[in-house]
């Protein structure tokens, strides 16, 4: 699934990043790399996605969010 398709409050794990050679290193520097867990904290009208990762919050534009592959993190039943 792509990050751009995730609902608000979803907790996901990054599985990969598609795109040109420059995009993955850029995302890696801001903490978005395979294996990292993040939470979708909001969605923008222009298609952007706000996320919380490693104590930081950031907004990815729609094109970048479409390139980030994620897997849902199962919620534990209490």
From TrEMBL:
**Entry keyword set:** Iron
Name any one GO molecular function.
Answer: transition metal ion binding
Give all residue intervals belonging to the Ferrous iron transporter FeoA-like domain.
1-72
Q: Give the signal peptide as a residue range, or say none if absent.
A: none
SMART domains associated with the record = FeoA (SM00899)
Q: Name one Pfam family in it.
A: FeoA
* Protein name listed in UniProt: Ferrous iron transport protein A
Task: Tell me which species this is from.
Answer: Georgenia thermotolerans
Q: What is the lineage of its organism?
A: Bacteria, Bacillati, Actinomycetota, Actinomycetes, Micrococcales
